[in-house]
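Quick illustration, no need to memorize.
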Amino acid sequence: MAPRKPPSLAPTGFLAAALLATAPLVTADESAPRPAKSVAEESLGASYNQLGLQHVLGVRWTWPLSSATRPLLADSHAATGLAHTLTPSYVRVGVWAELAPLSILGVRAGAEPGSYFGTFGSLRSHRSYDSCQDRECGTAGRPGNGGRLYLSPSLRLRFGSIAVASTATLEWWWASASGPFYYEPSRDTLLRSAGDRLLAVSTVLVRQTPRGDGGQLTYGLTHDLTEVWAAPGNRAQRLGVVAARRLAMGRRGSSATVGLRVGYYVQHPERRGQLTVAAAVSLERAR
C-alpha cells in the first residue's frame, strides 16, 4: 500500500474552478453594454483530497470596448486586476490583464510571484518527475521563493439557461527549491525547479436559473485536466458536479456566492479512483 499523502493545506486549481462555475457567463440574448466599473472581491475556500485552505483578496477594473447592443459584442471589454492569495503554506501577489474582443472570447495574461513558508511540506525537493509526491519521497519543506507566468484563453457561451465555459491556462513555473524538482501544491504536481511548463484546462457545463431574490442558482458538470508537458505520466483528470448559489445583496452590483464541488479522479499518478471535495464562499462589491 502506498504511504498516505500528508496534507499540504494549499488547494489546487480544482478549488478555483469551483468558483469559476459561479461566475456569470455570457448570455446570448444580452443586449445592453456594461458600464466601466471596479469590483472588489474576497473568497475563502477549503478542499479535501488534496486537503487545503485558501483566502483570496482581489480587485478588478473593467472597461467596455463597444457600445454595440448585439450579443456578440455587448460584453467585449478590457480589464486588469490585482490579487493576493494566502494559504498556510505560501503567499502570492498577482497582477493580470485581460482582453475580450468578443463577448464569448477572452485572453488573460498574468504574473504571480510569491513565497513559500516551508510549512506543511511546502517547497520540498524531489529527484525526478517519477518520484512519489509524498513527504517520505522528498526532502523536508523549506522556505523559499517562486511563482508563475500564465496565459489563459477562454470561451464562454450560453443558450437559454444552459451555459458552458472553458479556460486553458498555459503556465511557466519556477522555484528556489534546493533539488532539481519540487512539489507545487497549487497544481498538485512535480515541476522542475529551474523552470517548467504545464497546461491546465477547466471546463464547466451548467444550468443557471434566476431566483426571485435577484440571485442565481447554478448546477452542472465539470472536467479538469492538468498536464506537465515534460512529464505526461503525471497527467491528472477529474470529473465532477458543481452547485452554487449567488445571492444579490442590497448594494447594486454586490453579491455573495456559496459553491460546492465533488469530483472523481479519472487519472492521477497517486489518487486515481478517489473522490475530492471543494467548497468556497465569495463576496463581490461593485463600485
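Confidence is low (pLDDT under 50) at residues 1-15, 17-22, 24-33.
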